[in-house]
Amino acid sequence: MQTRRLLTILMILWAGVIGAGAVNAQETHRFDVKVPFPFLLQDREFPAGEYRIERIDQTKPNLFMLKNTNDHLTRLVLAQHVEHETPSTGTYLLFKRREGKLYLFQIWISGAINGLQIPSLDEKEKGNRGTDGTSVVRLNAITTKNSKSQ
Fold first, then answer.
1. Which one, of 97, 95, 31, lies nearest residue 65 by Cα?
2. Which one in 30, 113, 128, 138 has a CA-CA gap of 20 to 30 Å to 12?
3. Domain contains 22
4. How far apart are alpha carbons 30 and 69 in whole angstroms?
5. pTM for this one?
6. How far apart are CA 23 and CA 78, in angstroms?
7. What is the rounded distance in angstroms from the CA atom of residue 77 to the CA atom of residue 66?
């Protein structure tokens, strides 16, 4: 009887540890950011505003959702992995400026060596890999979300 009770307690503790790890992993892939300028994401223009960025399926790490929390605009994006040699020191977005327009280019999560790079649907962008008048703008995340998405 005592062995069974001990085994039950251990199983409950183990389930709690596994569950807490899953929730923590999900929280690290969701954050809010205030973008103070309009930008392009592939073929669509998004206005300045507050955005939530999150991975929506843990089994598909290259798929993320960008949601404008003011205007309720949502876009699902399939991205490509890019790597740093050292873990990212912050959570931030990188935008490429070309011909006066800003394109969302990469997303980095604090502590990760893998980031997400958004493939462009713009043919000029594909032909111009950052060599002719292209600059990069970094925008740090303002809030890490620890609550469930709405």
1. 31
2. 30
3. no
4. 13
5. 0.68
6. 23
7. 8
In this structure, is residue 103 part of a structural domain?
yes
Q: Where are the beta strands (DSSP E) in the chain?
A: 30-35, 39-41, 44-46, 49-55, 63-68, 74-78, 80-83, 92-98, 101-108, 114-117, 135-140, 143-144
In a domain? residue 50? yes
From the list 49, 22, 59, the residue with the least C-alpha distance to 148 is: 22
In this structure, are residues 53 and 65 in contact, taking their beta carbons and an 8 Å threshold? yes
- Full pLDDT tens readout for the chain, 150 residues: 565 554 455 455 444 444 433 333 444 578 999 999 999 998 789 999 999 999 888 888 899 999 998 888 899 999 999 998 999 989 999 999 988 899 999 999 999 999 999 987 554 445 544 444 567 888 788 654 444 444
Q: For the chain, how big is the Rg over CA atoms in Å? A: 19
Distance of CA 74 to the CA centre of its chain: 14
Domain range holding 107?
A: 30-144
Task: Count the domains in the chain.
Answer: 1
- Could you tell me which residues come within 8 angstroms of residue 109 by beta carbon, excluding any fewer than 6 positions away? 28, 29, 31, 88, 91, 115
In a domain, 98, yes or no: yes
